[in-house]
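Researcher: Good morning. I'm working through a list of sequences from a screen, and I'd like to move beyond sequence-only analysis. For each chain I'm collecting a predicted structure so we can compare shapes side by side. This is the next one on the list. No need for commentary yet; just the structure.
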Amino acid sequence: MPKDCRHQPPCPSADSADRQAARVVSHHFEQGWALLCNGVLQFDDTGGLLPDGKIVASYRALLRALPTSR
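Model: Good morning. Structure tokens for this chain:
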């Protein structure tokens, strides 16, 4: 639990597997990111930046264009 979190139930810590379940404290739709209660910067592509500067890779599946038939 983040030390300043007052949510009930408490938000998961930034180093836990479910860190994305923390509540949003600031959202910037126009820039594509949100700051979570646990200090994680969550990006719209599902990637993130942890408070210690480590990068969390995006897990969004990339869609491939299907070949068109003629």
